[in-house]
Amino acid sequence: MTSAPSQHSEYDYAPPAPPPNYTLYWVGISLLTVAFFLALLIWPPYFSGAGASTPPSSWVVFFGRFHPIVLHLPVGVLAISLLIEVGSFRASFEEKWRDQALFVAFVGAVGAVVAVMFGIFLSREGDFAGKSNLRAHQMLCLISAFTSIAGVFARLIYLTSMRKSLLDATRFILFGTAAVMGIGAHFGGNMSHGDKYLTEFAPPAVAGPMSAMDNWVRSFFEKKKDSAKEEPKTVPTPAASTKTEPAKQPEPAKTEPAKATAPAPTPPPAPAAGGNDKLVFQHIILPILEAKCNKCHNEAKSKGDLRMDTYELAMKGGENGSNIVAGDPDKSLTVQRMALPLDDDEHMPPEGKDQPTKEEMELIKWWIKEGASNTLTVSAAKIPDALKATADEQLKK
Fold first, then answer.
1. pLDDT on residue 17
2. For position 58, what pLDDT does the model report?
3. Going by C-beta distance under 8 Å and a sequence separation of 6 or more, which residues neighbour residue 196?
4. Domain range summary for the chain, segments of one domain joined by +
5. Taking burial as the number of CB atoms within 10 A of a residue's CB, which of 52, 154, 206, 301 is the most buried?
6. pTM
7. pLDDT tens by residue, 128-182
8. What is the dihedral sign for C-alpha 87, 93, 97, 101?
9. Neighbour-count burial for 158-197, b at 16+ CB within 10 Å, e otherwise
10. Residue 296 Ramachandran class (φ > 0 left, ψ -120 to 50 alpha, else beta)
11. Contact 298, 283 (CB under 8 A)
């Protein structure tokens, strides 16, 4: 008995799925690339302080202060991309997740571009200690933004051609982006928390190599100093005169007794404006610190873990050492940083910010040399004559 031939309808087998269309991704990543280049032309990053004297607009500062928030987007998305890519070393996993990997890579590229631009906006505000950290952070994160975009293009070309070599190139770009972004983010952390934040409590065997690596990477971003400018100028010593002058004969001593003359009276010091009962630190030194230092070292914003808005905190110092050493201005970081050349990475206040005058710096040095007292009154202080005018200006405020 023969079985009847089976009847198959046209619906018994599903038609092959159409190839995926990636047109929207091509358009999106192309527009993102163009927008990124245009944004960099309008708001170029400041690597050497150029343009820092121009105050940024309020909306640039407003968006720039979102940088610490939006930077977490590309970092988190990059972590997801790495997990997917590790799983994609299995062919079955890669075939199943290749479209999701493209979507995550695209979102990460958008996040990287936005984070970099907001970071450039934030850099317009200035106030960043250690400009080599800023340069390293900006350059490495710019590179990671570009490689994020390149990774999306590479993945799109791979999905279009399905060539294994292009998949390997995509993976190489992804892992390279992760490495560059991680190092760049580390230098951003140095700007916020100081160079010793990671190594302060690390074992010596770990802290030493980490610090050495930090210094090595930063050396590529430090501004080269002009050695010719730093050579001390030698003042020629005038040649001794060869002419011999005849010796003068001593005049005969006068026999008349000299009349006793009363010494000229020394005028009393002019009373300081506002009364002599005021305190030197509270009414002279602190106003200088408030005007020139406390924008970055106050209760709301304490860069380098340093605050200078009160006497106790100014004396306590920050993570880089003794801020004020009573009796020794040369060992006080405040004086050391102010005395550095303006283009030095460690100069404070940062380049482009209101700088203390020579007289204000001398007042601070004099106060420290006198013991950096919090109770010294203006009436008891022996302020040098050359600095009294500057002290009076502070007392009038």
1. 57
2. 86
3. 319, 320
4. 23-196+204-219, 280-395
5. 154
6. 0.62
7. 655 778 888 989 999 999 999 999 999 999 998 888 888 999 999 999 999 999 9
8. positive
9. bbeeeeeebbebbbebbeebbebbebbbbbbebbeebbbe
10. alpha
11. no
